[in-house]
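Hi F.,

I've been meaning to write this up properly since the lab meeting, where we talked about keeping a consistent format for the predictions we share between groups. The idea is simple: the sequence comes first, exactly as it goes in, then the structure tokens exactly as they come out, then a line or two of notes. No screenshots and no reformatting. I'm using this chain as the first example so we have something concrete to point to.
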Amino acid sequence: MGATSWLRPRALLPFWVVVALMVDLQAPSGQLALGGFGPKSAFADDDGGGDDGGDDGGQSGSSSGGSGTAPRRSTGPNLFRTLTDRFIPRPPRRGGRRAQRPAVPLPSRAPDQIVATGLSSAEIGQLQATGFTVLDRADIQLLGSELVRLRIPPNMPLEAARDLVIDAAPQSTADFVHYYRPGQEIECAGPHCAAADLIGWPADTGLPAGCGGNVTIGLIDTAINPAHAAFSKGRVEVIRLSDDGVPESGRQHGTAVAALLVGGADSRTPGLLPHARLIAVDAFHRGDRQDDRSEVYDLLRALDLLSGRGVQVTNMSLSGPANALLEQFVRKLSEHGMVIVAAAGNGGPNAEPAYPAAYADVIAVTAVDRMKRPYRRAGRGEHIDLAAPGVEVWTAASVSGARPKTGTSFAAPFVAAAAALMKSANSNASAADIHDALGKSAEDLGAPGKDAVFGWGLLNARAACVVTPKKAT
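Output, unedited:
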């Protein structure tokens, strides 16, 4: 018995281990001959060396630490690991790779505030008697009334507080103090993009007589760097709403959008309308989560300011929730002739509609790349009106120089500039006329007619100075 104990089944394991080892060492570099293993297989503790967030089709670094080189043959200290991993299975790691904590969503509204218009002094006093506090108030020329921001009583649910304000003043409009944010910037490495050529943007020499002169564009965005070389010869006026110690927002987004509109013709980032005048309202501040945000209270003040300055075309490369007061404002502004262009948002194809783009009186702009394919993170829906270049668009960086940017934020300025050309050539055209003309002249993409991906299609700037007024019904 003792002499033949090596023939017992329990003693067969070392023999097969040795055989497997011999085959493994004789196999070509990077390949294993037994068990179906191959260069695409990974051990349980092999993280692959790749980045989960990449867009490289799932490729990752090799086990040797190089990029694209074949892994070396297992020798030395890896011998024991090879044997134990192959013949002594380890319990699987829970969740595979280390689980990442889900990102905490940014807040969409102030937790303790209500904004309202149309309140009388007596009604405000009544609300104060029930525990409301007036935080701020501003006269709104557009509505001929006062905009009031209120802090709700302690321990009162926000929805109940809004209902209480509406009940106290049925003629008023009240809602939450929603936050709006600039579209997420996606930095891209790559060559310059011929975005203007994609839509047939006319050069100064190609504009019809009377088109392109005396254009003033409004911009509501983050902070802007007015000292950037792109604006050295331009007419850019920056107005910051908050000067009370609130941290200034970042300058990357606002500077990039402004340069797309009015960057100097001889700068590294020529704008679409380099000779136009830009009134840029910085309505944002840096929030406690280090995010750039604008409260709806400041958005309304910014819109009223631009309206009072006679601006007829306004770009809003920002997005947030639906808000009753914002909807009322954009409707009034449209009736007064202002064309409002807004980014569709970068929440993805299945995201809820973003506002103000989703309002009927606003031109909602999505983004496409140089091949006229939809930007994969752009919002979709029946509210989408037009598509414009928004993938790797060359524009100004925040401090100096330039770089490509991607997002619907950078597509909206193309449509705003086209609307400004139309307005300059047809000063009597209504916002609805321009909205309609841009849609009718667009290059149809995707499904025939208006669709949820491209709207009416790609902006056609060749028709930017032509408007046919809609017939009254």
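Notes:
The chain has two domains: 109-171, 181-463.
Residues 12-26 form the longest helix (15 residues).

If this format works for you, I'll send the rest the same way.

G.
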